[in-house]
Amino acid sequence: MDTCIRIALIPGDGVGREVMAEALPLLDWARARGRSLETVDLPYGADHFLATGETLPEVAFASVRDGCDAILFGAVGDPRVPDGRHAEEILLRLRQELELTVNHRPCRSPATRLGTGLDIEVFRENTEGPYCLQGSTEPGRAVDLAIHTEPAVRRLLEAAFRRAARLDRSLTLAHKANVLKHGHGLWLRLFVELRREHPEVDARAMHADALLCALVQGPMSFGVIAADNYLGDLISDLCAGFIGGMGVAPSLSWAPHRPFRCATLAEPVHGSAPDIAGQGLANPVGMILSTALLFRHLGWDPEAEAIEAAVARALESGARTRDLGGTLGCAAMGIAIRTGLR
Ligand code: GGG
User: What CATH code is assigned to 1-105+249-342?
Assistant: First the structure.
């Protein structure tokens, strides 16, 4: 029997809860195959915040930090909390305080059978840049600080170089060091340094605006793309657009410099989608593929591959939610995928 893996479940808000419901049977399925895992329910999100004033209580945060190997996360964001305070104090806090620097966002149409063979992996720095939540709104001006630190940038770039070498794919750094001289200057300097250490990787740096244009014109010429928090967010959403949209895009975040048994966070790229929440219309594919990424991270490769194959099989058979032009609801799509699990 494997060591027991503890997974914190945070469905969050809106469609996060609906897509999470389609990932949970995969945990039971893994258990039935002999994987040892237990779950901890953490029902934090807008409802809990509005009812109690609590976002992520200290005791819950500590239970994740000290007692969990992984987090399965749905989505956060709710129009009833317009300043997004609970989203910051739940999701961004987990990413930052657990130092989940590396956010891996694969966009593979082989996994979804949508698009035309696209296979791009975005490595997004996940804790810093303009998402460090420091700044001010003053009369007549607003300031958002973008902080980039050498350890985090190096960790992200090292992970991207390692991945590109492993896949034998090219690596492109997206930056704007021509204007963001300090922050992106640091990115470029470290990139050039690491490129010398990884002569086996075909690595180039591009201004992000030119990169976006080249991506739209020829997405197949890209392999791994590394970027800071902000650019990585934009680039990965554009890449998701090539393979069917945000609903099918998975992600996994981890702290490469921390021991294996510290929480790793699997979450779909999409947010809480308040416009369709509560109607059973969400696409669970991004959440289900995120669960597969987590299983692979845990060393459960057969289960990860089986889930990815089941998603491909379901989509190949024509199963589609509304965002993909079909008529299935979230639960029916989850069933269509699980039916093909072997
Ligand atoms: N599952 C992703 C999610 O809930 N995103 C909401 C959010 O606040 N995201 C900020 C970010 O990812 O940059």
Answer: 3.40.718.10
Asked if 114 contacts 99 with a C-beta cutoff of 8 angstroms, the reply is no
Scored b (16 or more CB within 10 A) or e, 106-128 reads bbbbebbbbbeebbbbbbbbbbb
Band (pLDDT 50/70/90 cuts) for residue 259 is: confident
Domain coordinates of the chain in residue numbers? 1-105+249-342, 119-242
Q: Is 75 in the pocket of ligand 1 (CB under 6 A)?
A: yes
Task: Please state which architecture CATH assigns to domain 119-242.
Answer: 3-Layer(aba) Sandwich (3.40)
Say if residue 325 is exposed, middle or buried (CB neighbours under 10 Å; 0-12, 13-18, 19+): exposed
| 119-242 and 1-105+249-342 share a CATH fold | yes
Beta carbon of 247 within 6 Å of any ligand 1 atom: no
With pLDDT > 70 as the criterion, what percentage of the chain qualifies? Answer: 97
Region 119-125: what's the mean pLDDT?
97
Q: Is 180 left (phi over 0), alpha (psi -120 to 50) or beta?
A: beta
Residue nearest ligand 1's atom 6 by CA: 271
Q: Which of 71, 91, 101, 237 to mutate to test the pocket of ligand 1 (most atoms within 8 A of CB)?
A: 91
Atom of ligand 1 nearest to the CA of 74: 1
Q: Count CB atoms within 10 A of the CB of residue 98.
A: 23
| Beta carbon of 267 within 6 Å of any ligand 1 atom | yes
Sign of the C-alpha dihedral computed for residues 292, 20, 23 and 273 taken in this order:
negative
Say yes or no to pLDDT of 110 above 70: no
pLDDT value of residue 161: 98
Q: How far does residue 198's CA lie from ligand 1's centre (Å)? A: 32
Q: What pLDDT, in 10s, does the model give residues 276-321?
A: 999 999 999 999 999 999 999 999 999 999 999 999 999 999 999 9
